[in-house]
Specification:
The chain is α/β, with parallel strands linked by helices. It is built from 11 helices and 10 strands. The chain folds into 2 domains: 238 residues, 3-Layer(aba) Sandwich (Rossmann fold), CATH 3.40.50.1820; 81 residues, no CATH class. The two termini are 30 Å apart.
């Protein structure tokens, strides 16, 4: 729903990126990936900064350009912000990174595929080459939820590539957002003789998908991302004992090694290379992500990393309005 019909409208361009990097993924996911690219009204993209949108679980980038009933899609939001002078013009890319397991954490995995490498070595260079935008010091990554996690991890590990990042309600503090989900995962698997393969095939058969099943699928996707087993079905193994739900420490350590709060212990200094870093989270986030965000914020402050940190009075759902703050911040930082 367009809020400001007087704002000049940008254009959406669709392109396909054929990935060699994703060819060896265990899920059998397609290697040709659609990328929708927004260019502002009156611009062909040349010499503009580039923002890359990493969407949350169960979504692919093109969902952010689809019609919305209440509120705006992201291109409509961009038109309004740019038209009102609240944000300088920028190119924004919406890559489709959806997978068989319902989404993406945007990290390299022998099961899910090498998504870090895809974004950095294939997708972003393809967009920059076609639209003559971005480039060193002129590209940023942003996202919410799983996408916020991706933005945080890319900022921590690839600040030589990304010049700025924004994480909205990103996965952090894994003990309180992921580990506590394991009893529910085991109960769901028990209905299929404890078999991950049987559960997943039953889920894929549909024809209807319950909300609680999406949460189970999300945990399986996390497992395939953080601690993949090349010999297991779809690379999935759990970090807990299937009977007692006791933590299998070696496996859980592999998960925790991907927690931004933990990565910060070894990589926080690299964040000082960024031109801008935005972190926010709802103060009643139902997945407990605010506690991880607070810990992450504290580590950044202790290390002297300049950043914006905000908690806002809301939960995890329907918080795209936060982009009204983060997107202008990113473009300003890149300028």
């Amino acid at each position: 729903m367009i809020r400001d019909r007087s704002a000049p409208r940008g254009q959406l361009h669709r392109m396909a990126v054929e990935s060699k990097i994703l060819a060896d993924n265990m899920l059998g996911d397609p290697t040709e990936r659609e990328v929708v690219v927004y260019t502002p009204a009156g611009h062909n993209g040349g010499d503009l900064p580039l923002l890359v949108d990493l969407v949350g679980f169960t979504a692919g980038g093109p969902v952010h350009v689809a019609w919305k009933n209440f509120g705006e899609n992201v291109p409509e939001r961009l038109d309004r912000l740019i038209g009102a002078g609240a944000m300088a013009p920028a190119v924004v890319a919406f890559p489709d990174c959806f997978t068989r397991l319902g989404g993406n954490q945007y990290v390299n995995s022998v099961a899910m595929g090498r998504w870090e490498d895809f974004l950095i070595e294939e997708m972003t260079p393809a967009v920059e080459a076609r639209f003559n935008c971005g480039g060193d010091g002129r590209r940023a990554v942003f996202g919410k939820s799983s996408g916020g996690f991706g933005a945080s991890v890319h900022a921590l590990l690839h600040n030589d590539f990304w010049a700025a990042a924004a994480s909205h309600s990103g996965d952090m503090g894994f003990e309180w957002c992921h580990l506590i989900e394991m009893p529910a995962v085991l109960r769901a698997l028990a209905q299929h003789d404890g078999s991950i393969e049987r559960w997943l095939r039953a889920f894929e058969a549909g024809p209807k998908w319950k909300g609680e099943d999406i949460h189970i699928l999300m945990m399986l996707a996390q497992a395939a991302s953080y601690d993949p087993d090349p010999d297991a079905f779809c690379g999935i193994r759990l970090p807990v004992d299937p009977q007692t739900c006791e933590i299998i420490q070696e496996r859980w350590d592999n998960w925790m090694a991907w927690d931004p709060v933990v990565i910060a212990d070894r990589a926080v200094e690299g964040l000082k290379n960024l031109k801008g870093l935005w972190i926010d989270c709802g103060d009643v986030d139902q997945y407990n992500l605010v506690y991880g965000a607070r810990r992450f914020h504290a580590k950044l402050e202790q290390a002297g990393v300049e950043h914006v940190y905000e908690e806002f009075p809301d939960n995890h759902s329907s918080v795209d309005y936060r982009m009204d703050k983060s997107l202008p911040f990113l473009v300003s930082a890149l300028s």
